[in-house]
Amino acid sequence: MIRNKYAIRREEAKEAYDETLGWIFSLFPTLAKRKEQKAQTLSGGEQQMLAIGRGLVSLPRLLMLDEPSLGLSPLLVSKLFQIIREINSGGTTVLLVEQNVYHSLAISNTGYVLENGEIRLSGSGNKLLSDDRIRQAYLGM
């Protein structure tokens, strides 16, 4: 029987489950403290951490995040973006859709600026952060 690469990847994720869960709890220590709690009783920030953790448990090659900072306190937003950078540094590609321009471009290898569904600008995160059009239109500088 020929096994496809996705079945093999699932088996690897199952075998590494305990180690992966430990890693997720190291990223989100609050989740470790709340592991016996029902998800619906968690705060918004904790639910966001849980959603990311659930995405990571399968050891994806690509993690897609849509507005992960929405509704979070500024302190949690900064921590979240540090964690996203750490996830990416570990070898997982992260596709991030985010309106928090400064934080998202600061951690991005490549960024795309969309307006009305069209790509208006693209480049490295640092290049886009230093672009005067971005600074004026999105960062108020």
Topology, number of strands = 4
Mean pLDDT: 90
The helix content is: 40-55%
Q: Tell me the fraction of residues in β-strands, as a range.
A: 5-15%
| CATH homologous superfamily identity of the domain at 5-99 | P-loop containing nucleotide triphosphate hydrolases
- Secondary structure tally, helices: 8
Which residue ranges are poorly predicted, with pLDDT under 50 across at least 5 consecutive positions?
none
Write down the Rg: 17 Å
- The CATH class of the domain at 5-99 turns out to be Alpha Beta
Major β-sheet strand ordering: 1-2
Measured between the Cα atoms of the first and last residue, the distance is: 60 Å
What CATH architecture of the domain at 5-99 do you see? 3-Layer(aba) Sandwich
Helix and strand sequence: HHHHEHEHEEHH
User: Per the principal axes of the C-alpha atoms, what is the gross shape?
Assistant: globular
Largest sheet: 2 strands, parallel
CATH-assigned fold name of the domain at 5-99: Rossmann fold
Structural class: alpha+beta
Structure description:
By secondary structure, the chain is α+β, with helices and mostly antiparallel strands. It contains eight helices and four strands; from the N terminus they run H-H-H-H-E-H-E-H-E-E-H-H. It has helices spanning 5-15, 17-27, 29-33, 44-56, 74-89, 101-107, 125-130, 132-138, and strands spanning 62-66, 93-97, 111-115, 118-123. The strands form two sheets. Strands 1-2 form a two-stranded parallel sheet. The longest helix is centred in the middle third of the chain and has 16 residues, at 74-89. 16% of the residues are buried.
